[in-house]
Please model this.
Amino acid sequence: EVQLVESGGGLIQPGGSLRLSCAASGFSVSSSYMTWVRQAPGKGLEWVAVIYSDGNTYYADFVRGRFNVSRDNSKNTLYVEMNSLRSEDSAVYYCARMSSTWYDPWFDPWGQGTLVTVSS
Amino acid sequence: QSALTQPASVSGSPGQSITISCTGTSSDVGDYNYVSWYRQHPGKAPKLLIFDVTNRPSGVSNRFSGSKSGNTASLTISGLQAEDEADYYCSSFTTSNTFVLFGGGTKLTVL
Model:
């Protein structure tokens, strides 16, 4: 079964750092395009970042320079390192497998999400 | 880049059909057949319903169908069921540096 399980969310102070993990099963993270999408409480979905199968990464403007997406092929796990966190980064963070064509982005499956709360 | 425009809410009775619209621009929905739709039940992850405007993934009911005209894509759900009550989001490729846009979401209420 193709599945994604996120972990690592929690309460963090503004300016702090947090690393989220997304463990995949049923497929290979290294040969897939993998993304992070977030959803602030009561709000809509917002694309955050993607890592392509060749290792290249691309970020939304609002996280570029602060977030870093990586993967561990041996653990079949995706990560996002989030630095200089702001209150507006508070959201449920989902990882998702993206379609294999960068200009035709659709996402399936999605993980269950992990909640990040940035507050003092 | 603004989100794609969806109605905040729609409703319908069991057995009826409803349509949710998703309006963009010529930089996204209008010029590219790369629109997808997702359903999200409260507290759950989104689920892919439609990709490339009209295509259903394996396992998705044929009660769900997609279409597009100009800058507006649409999701139609026929034979409404109680389980269809959820939030629905559209998404599209965009030539902006965001590369993918989501709609603001539509809450479907089954009366």
About this structure: The radius of gyration of chain A is 13 Å. The mean pLDDT of chain A is 96.
